[in-house]
């Protein structure tokens, strides 16, 4: 089973440029994370955006939708900033016949302590097992974007009760 | 859904004691890994053995079997050394009505570069989604212990063709 | 010999707040770095500012000067952002009878790959050995602030030739 | 000023071979540590032994002595296991006209939490500043090997009172 990774930016890919004393979205970290995890399944990585998810526009979301829909692969992991991950996930629910899992991280993958590897591992297991549909893999749980949200105060995802 | 972690030792839990210039199985790393990953599901961790998996005896495997079988939780992750993980997994296949996922790592969780978080994330997603049965989560894949093995030369798990 | 650490912020202390998708100066990392390095000398840590060094004002520099001058300890390490480290160092040269070493890092201490521990180790050795005066410890070298600068393009300190 | 690094093995260079479930002395970590620290001084690295320091023989110590003595560089850092670091340092005291600093680490450089970068930074500052002689840089302190020892119980170096 081949997995396609589409990367859009977000905290998971943030790097630090000292020369500007700023923190910016860098190249996708997925490739390095998979190499370090000694992943042995077939995969392909494509960077389609490099943005903080708060900066994603409707046009960006349309682009993500079209790239996922057009992709020949039926198992797709989208790495994404957490702030609007739910919004993008909902924009993908019209796509049928594909298992699509969105994930990201609360701390950049380059940090010594980060949830990036853990979330990526969960997303990869989920995308291989779940039936077609759109899912969020965060905090060790699998969420249905139709009835979940990011709890900004607690810095985690949760179901809407 | 509550997940029970039963830890048995293995590389994932190896620490380094400089005073003896040796590398030994330490306390379970799962608790710290889950905290760092900001896991929000309900869980419980129990350490039942602290051994290199090459040192596990038939009695140890019987103990693991009995603890898994007796546990009230129906979703169980067993952390385990990789060398005999398949053997222990096969010893658990007689247990019905539970989803059991074994995982571990090739590099200790305390290393800067390790597959521990990634494998744990994959195991946790798998144990929540898969139907009752026994599975191995390693290298970003889900294996059936009946037809898989550790490829020692390539340092990864693979299907027996 | 007792060493006093005065922390002023800078990249070394930067943390990431996912809730704001921003990167800010957090609490001083020196305490944790010294604990992890198993440091056994006598020391005291005092946080006097928490700023990006580009944001330091003349009043801030006067404050740093006064705190260093008034400190009873004669061996002082100042952690500081790199962009104006030279400027602050020069503002301290009027203080006599104390060995003062400024250091910081190009990558935050919380990153997996960072120069923070290395620079701190160098600063600590330097402050114990060097005669009274003001020094910069960066890139594995000891600089005289009177004739050195930060090379922003190369992201390192260098002598002015 | 050029610094020569002579590596002899020890905990600092230990890696983990999962295929053997063992922990062994690997290639010298100094090169990677210096690259990560963005070191800008001139240096050269030479691996002369790859041993746990408990396994060093008199012949090994004679070899280290001869290599240090013959080296054209007058500023030398020797990375070394901690258990017999003092012994090797004492064997080098007959060499005149060179500043020689021995260092190593209590936790392997490849660990997420390690004293390797910190100790290396301290050794590098010390070797540039100190007059000719033989020194130990550990725990953020500079020791005279004639009157210091490793305290195995406390896992640190200390002066002999």
What does this structure look like?
4 copies of one chain form a homotetramer. The first copy, chain A, is α/β, with parallel strands linked by helices and 161 residues long. In chain A, 25% of the residues lie in helices and 33% in strands. Chain A contains 4 helices and 10 strands, in the order βββαβαβαβαββββ. In chain A, the strands form 3 sheets. In chain A, strands 4-1-5-6-7-8 form a 6-stranded mixed sheet, with helices on both faces. A two-stranded antiparallel sheet of chain A has the order 2-3. A two-stranded antiparallel sheet of chain A has the order 9-10. Chain A is globular. The mean pLDDT of chain A is 94. Chains in contact: A-B, A-C, B-D, C-D. At the A-B interface, α1, α4 and β10 of A face α1, α4 and β10 of B.
Give a brief description.
Chain A has helices at residues 30-36, 58-70, 85-91, 116-129, and strands at 2-9, 14-17, 22-25, 42-51, 75-79, 99-103, 133-138, 141-143, 148-151, 156-159. With 161 residues, chain A is an alpha/beta fold. In chain A, the strands form three sheets. Chain A has a six-stranded mixed sheet, sandwiched between helices. A two-stranded antiparallel ribbon of chain A has the order 2-3.
Give the CA-CA distance, first to last residue of chain A.
Answer: 35 Å
Main sheet specs of chain A: 6 strands, mixed
Q: How many DSSP-defined strands of chain A? A: 10
Pattern of helices and strands of chain A: EEEHEHEHEHEEEE
Largest interface: A-B, 35 and 35 residues
Helix/strand-derived class of chain A? alpha/beta
Mean pLDDT of chain A: 94
Number of helices of chain A: 4
> Based on CA inertia axes, which overall geometry of chain A fits?
globular
| Beta-strand percent range of chain A | 25-35%
Biggest sheet strand line-up of chain A = 4-1-5-6-7-8
Helix content range of the residues of chain A, please?
A: 25-40%
Oligomeric category: homotetramer
Q: Detail the poorly predicted runs of chain A.
A: none
The radius of gyration over CA of chain A amounts to 15 Å
